[in-house]
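ok so i was messing around last nite and threw this chain in just to see what happens. nothing serious, just curious
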Amino acid sequence: MAGGATKYRHLSRNSAHRQALLRNLVSSLLSHESITTTWHKAKEAQRLAEKLITLGKKNSNASRVRAQQILFTPFRHMDRLFGELRTRYADRPGGYTRVLRIEPENHHHDQAASAILELVDGPRDMRFAMTAKTLVRERAAIVDADAASAAGAGAGAGKDDGYHGAGRGIRDITARNVVKVTRFRRNGEEELEKEVKRLEALDRSLRKQQKKGAEKDEGANIGWDEATAEGERQGWERYDQYSKEQRKRRKLGYKIRELEEKEAERRRLRKE
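result:
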């Protein structure tokens, strides 16, 4: 893993602890397809995971022995490494994992930079899911633009909004992402289209629910008069006043308790 002039992150650990940490992360990655950890641990674990999958693609006795030495629980992961993953990445020349930066997970302590380490072309491939969502959004925008043009309301038809034109395609960056996520994935285009259709159906269902909720709220607001609104406003004002009084009482209680503790400390020092 490390030696000679090779540069690597020590991760504030000695060699044995560092290797155990990375082996544990890689074993979890093979189990769950995606793990969340700090950015620096993810980058170091990525190097080991790439080497491990390369061993799985070689599928020799020597590579099996080396993989058993790396994995914490080889009896759980050997069959998957030399079976499913070897088949998945048979045509991919490299880049079996991906590191995605996210907001710090540890909000209450060190605020360390966090990241997601994932296996590409798998069921939890985040870029694949994000590309599918982008296609759903852009196709919906194209349909809306076509409808607006047909209705004669296409005031912005001549604007350059990042699309190739109403009804003529998607953005260039989205097209490049589609190529990235489907290039080495088996039946990639079919899988992507299936995911897009699933998300479109989910989006239609959510829109229906929102529409029903809006109609229900509109019906509930019938008969809403100024007296009711005034009563609700006064109720909120009373609640705010009560909350302020409660906060004042708590602060006063904290001060009294602090003074009592100081007085008790003085008495104890005098006795000593």
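not much to say yet. The longest helix spans residues 226-271.
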